[in-house]
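Pilot study result, target chain (78 residues):
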Amino acid sequence: MTSPDEETISAAEAAKLLFVAKVHLERLIDNGTLPLHHGTGFERFVRKADVLAYKARKHAEARAFLSTQTEDSEPPGL
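Predicted structure:
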């Protein structure tokens, strides 16, 4: 039995977890953003822990960006 840290999921399952298209997830694998665990035939598998870590990083980046944005008290042109 594999440990939860070593649990692998298919590229399609990972795409669903990240709310992205499978082709986008495959690009993340191809460019090294997400490490490929193994491939069988036409299917690729990644570690679920890697996908969750990527999701957490992207969420933190988005929160950091949003925290730098301010709302103008008077919008331009008004």
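One observation from the pilot: The CA atoms of residues 10 and 45 lie 4 Å apart. A full batch analysis is planned for the follow-on phase.
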